[in-house]
Amino acid sequence: MNHTPTPLMELARFFLRLGFTAFGGPAAHLAIMRDEVVTRRGWLTETEFLDLISAANLIPGPSSTEVAIHIGYRRCGWAGLAVAGLCFILPAALIVAAIAAAYSRYGSILASSGLLRGVKPAVIAVVLQAIVGLARPAIKTRALLLLAVAAGAFAFMGFAVLPLLIGAGVLAAASGWARARRTQGTSLSPQPLIAIIAGSAALILLPSLLTWFFPAPHGRIAFGLLPLFLFFLKIGSVVYGSGYVLLAFLRDGLVTGWHWLSEGQLIDAIAVGQITPGPVFTTATFIGYLLGGVAGALAATVAIFLPSFVFVAATAPVAARMRNLPLASSFLDGVNAGAIALMVVVTVQLARAALVDVPTASIALVSAFLLVRVRVPSMYVIAGSALAGIVIAHVR
User: Fold this and answer.
1) Which of 179-193, 274-288, 318-332 has the least mean pLDDT?
2) Does residue 357 sit in helix, strand or coil?
3) Full-model pTM
4) Ramachandran assignment for 242, one of left (phi > 0), alpha (psi -120 to 50 degrees), beta (any other)
5) Angle at Cα 358 formed by Cα 355 and Cα 359, nearest 5°?
6) SS3 string of 56-87?
7) Rounded Cα–Cα distance for residues 103 and 256 (Å)
8) Measuring CA to CA, which residue among 345, 25, 352 is closest to residue 159?
């Protein structure tokens, strides 16, 4: 790993470029980041990068954005934390706001199926490459392999992400404590293990607690920037998981709750968040612009991403020290094994939707060849695949 602090401008340029070119959703974003910061730049080791993914998965908010914020903190301290997050979010927010302005004027968005048709197969190749690289340092023992297999099986059955990750961490920590107790005898204190179990229980209860403090809106009310800001602040504070979870919150609050959006507008908003580069949570930018113009877009964007900066700022110093504590390190090993399993599950789900015919399978194979044999940077492979998808859609 390169321990020399990264210049702030270099960090800003990297995340601005990523914000303009990182198509494909959180799994692809993490794969691209891993390719750039681990393989090409040597800013982090594989284990350190996987630790950041685990730390981001344990707090609410968009995981890839939070990993970007963590990377900024690791490389440039508190200034890097702010710069990395803002530079990753800003390009996507500007692109989405521009699309929202066109949508508001013309009433429809440009056809995007061709772009998505090219991006999705490339994402499969990018994510698989990242999984192979991250699995080597993560699955270090037979016990961790069994944990990963179990976590993957439960994930396929539909179990929630957070309890699976924390459960894997607690089991690994308990196993580490039992091994240490066999070598050190009964003098080994159980207090560190109890603290990990108590902290894990608190993390599992956190979403329910936050939802209790931020109840779902009901009843028609007039639009205002303050209710809009507070609604998206709640979203950023409580949502774990995928864009499908985000969709459920948005529909409950803005369509059936306050009646500010129609079903069709909500679907268009989610689609724009999916097809544009950068964080999927910029769906909030689109909705904010539809409801309140530039001021609404700014309020919604700031509100939905602000909790991520707060959560990472609160947890990053702790996450950086956990590897130095034996029992905490075992906990991280378990969470990392679970994270690898979840990445595999997500990839399988993506592949079912992405590889639907010969052209999409061909894009996936060519992308894999360019990534593995030619070693083309992943963000260029995804951008090229997007163009290929548009061309194929027009030719057909």
Assistant:
1) 179-193
2) coil
3) 0.73
4) beta
5) 85
6) HHCCCCCHHHHHHHHHHHHHHHHHHHHHHHHH
7) 22
8) 345
> How confident is the model over 340-387, as pLDDT tens digits?
888 888 788 778 877 888 988 999 999 989 988 888 877 788 778 888
Q: Where are the domains of the chain?
A: 8-135+309-326+353-395, 225-304
% of the chain at pLDDT higher than 70:
87
- The Cα 377–Cα 388 span in angstroms is 17
By the 8 A CB rule, do 1 and 44 touch?
yes
Residue 230: pLDDT over 50: yes
**CA nearest 2: which of 28, 30, 36, 32?**
36
Cα–Cα–Cα angle for 168, 174, 180, nearest 5°?
A: 135
User: Hey, CA dihedral for 50, 55, 57, 62, is it positive or negative?
Assistant: negative
Report whether 8 contacts 103 (CB < 8 A).
Answer: no
**Residue 384 in contact with residue 390, Cβ under 8 Å?**
no
**41 in Cβ contact with 10 (< 8 Å):** no
- For residue 195, give Cα distances in angstroms to 215, 312, 331, 332: 30, 21, 12, 14
Asked if 77 and 316 count as a contact pair (C-beta separation under 8 A), the reply is no
Tokens at residue 380, please?
């260029």
Q: Kindly state the tokens that stand for 356.
A: 């639907």
Residues 296-308 have pLDDT tens digits of 999 999 999 999 9
| CA 314 to each of CA 70, 328, 333, 363: distance values in angstroms, whole numbers, following the listed order | 11, 17, 21, 41
- Specify whether the CB–CB gap between 122 and 315 falls below 8 A: no
pLDDT, tens digit, 9 for 90 and up, residues 12-44: 999 999 998 887 778 788 888 998 999 889 999
Angle (CA) 381-130-18 rounded to 5° is 50
